[in-house]
Amino acid sequence: MDAFMVIADPTRRRIIDTLRGGSADVTTLIEQLDLSQSLVSKHLGVLRDAGTVRVEVAGKRRVYHLADDPLPAVLAWVTPYHRTWASALDRLTTLLDDNADIHDNKKEDTRD
């Protein structure tokens, strides 16, 4: 399953978001997300197969961690857009600052 299909499901996104805050076992995920054990296990299997999460066996528990690079295809796809948006927002900030400076200078001129 490709990375976009992985994040297409809202339950998987909730699991990913939860694991972003730290590792968790299935019981913790069930409690935090208020989901059934079978649903959490099903989605964890998909996430594990996609390489989005990794599992560590700790005694009788399976602890899930977000992978070091969980969604590389998504990041590669969105990065050019992020750069474009960031650049456009930087230009807008500059224009707004310049406009504010002009406005402030006009106020000072009318006071003199």
Summarize, please.
With 112 residues, this protein is of the alpha+beta class.
The total of helices stands at 5
**Looking at CATH, which topology of the largest domain would you report?**
Arc Repressor Mutant, subunit A
Oligomeric state, counting identical vs distinct chains: single chain
| CATH C-level of the largest domain | Mainly Alpha
Strand order of the largest sheet: 1-3-2
Strand content: 5-15%
**Main sheet: strands, sense, barrel:** 3 strands, antiparallel
Q: Percent range for helical residues?
A: 55-70%
CATH architect. name of the largest domain? Orthogonal Bundle
Please trace the helix and strand order, writing H or E for each element: HHEHHEEH
Superfamily (CATH H level) name of the largest domain? Winged helix-like DNA-binding domain superfamily/Winged helix DNA-binding domain
| DSSP E strands, number | 3
- Which residues form runs of ≥5 with pLDDT under 50? none
Overall pLDDT confidence: 91
Rounded radius of gyration (Å): 23 Å
**Content-based structural category:** alpha+beta
